[in-house]
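Note to self: keep these together.
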Amino acid sequence: MPHILSPARPLKELARARTGNVAVITAAFAPIAAMMAAMAIDTGAISTQKRALQGHADMAALVAASDLLNAERVAQAYLADNGRTGIEIARSEGGEEVRSTAGATMRVETGRYTADKSLSASERFIVGQEPLNAARVSLSEPQHRFFDFLGGSSKPVDVTGVAVISSEAGISVGSRLARLEGGILNDLLSALLGGEVSLSAMSYEALLDVEVDMIDCIEWLAEDLELTAVTYSDVLETNIGLEDLLSAMAETAGENVLARQALRTLAGDARGDARTLRLGELIELGRIEPRALGDPSAVAGVSLNALPMLMASAMVANGENQIDLALSARAGQLVHVDATLVIGERPQGQSWFALSGLPGETVSTAQLRLSVVAEIGGGRLLSNALVRLPIHIDLASADARITDIDCKQGQREAERVQVAVKPSIARLRIAEIDESGRVQPAKILDGRLIQIEAFADVQAANPDDTQLRFLRHEIGGSPKTAGTNKALEGLLSSAITNLDYEIDVVGLQLLSDAYIASILSSLFSDLAAPLDRLVFSLTSALGLGLGEADVWVHTASCSAPVLVQ
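Structure:
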């Protein structure tokens, strides 16, 4: 019987057949694979195009920043020299930017760049703001695509480069020292160094005149302490003894024999003292800190006066310890004078000296409480009792910060440095202040027949910043003072005038309270001048001022432009 095929059988066999499936699938997905490959090629090409264009923008910005007055011309010349000819200059018409749709365009802008972390990246460069210190070059060109059948994008490739003329300044605050008399500085240094200091006035004059190269000093310290494979920052963060620091200063303090001998003597006086310090609490070296010791790029030139640095170092090492000074009476009717210093910390993260190119870098003095108890003979009218006057002066930290470093084209030295200074706030109280800080009226006279209490509280405050401008010839010279050097005189006079007396006369009252108060005011007025000199000498030795701040700009330099965005 002939075999009869079922009509459904070929369809079932065809469904079970698998030959040719690859060809079918390939045919179905080949267009998709081709499109994905084309997209990958175009994406890679655009990425390469953007990297190349960004490199040109960065280099053009560096060239423009090196000649800010001709920024557009030199940037265009750079691009032409590197094969990027035919680039149009972007212009604005009616407030809108006009770009070329056929080729590349360039926009060159000059302005002021502020390296301030508190500002967003877009806010740091301000077009047209003077003094100029930066250039921004923006390049734009159509995308380079190989597969136009995918549809060309109208979005161009945009890149921007910003370069700034780098600048750097070294400043310190509270570093002026008076010509001290009567051995006050010897007394103060003896207490700070833990030895018996007896330098001559000529030695102090030599220390005022000589400078210490801080780079050499740090390298000498690292070798002396046998620190290896370290950076400058490592040395700054190492605890060192005062003797080690003073020895290093003596070895790097120039050619002044008297000054070097004085530092060696002071190092001997500090021998055996357990107090240490970190130089990083005292100085900040900015760009130099992360570099390895001996790095040629960490060039010398950071030089600080020896005596202010000595005093600042001793204060940091002393911590918050109380210093009792056994001062003898020095003038007028003074019978006895006792002085006590309590040196507090600087604000967190602030140093005495800083080398930085960042506007806003702040340096500060330490905080201080100076207590002076002066005794003066009251005379027969006050039963020959000693009149005791306890004076407490609190000084808040004074600080200074760089606000601008002006660099001119082609100059390595800065044209000027602008510094904003906030002088210390001084508070003077005639009162008794115990260890817990409790304040009460002072018993200034405790005689058999007369007992007197008095109280005064006055302040000298300068809440606003004072702007100091250091011109080129002033950089590295004498300090400038913000505030008034008459603050102490005004405080004492005001306190004496405003003394609130509580007078108790035992027995028969022969003298009126008003008359006794007038006698006291006359006595205290005579005290003002010698106490003025005494307190001024002590605070000046510590680099502090009453209601004022002294600022040095030690160095300021300009160098090659650097990219910042």
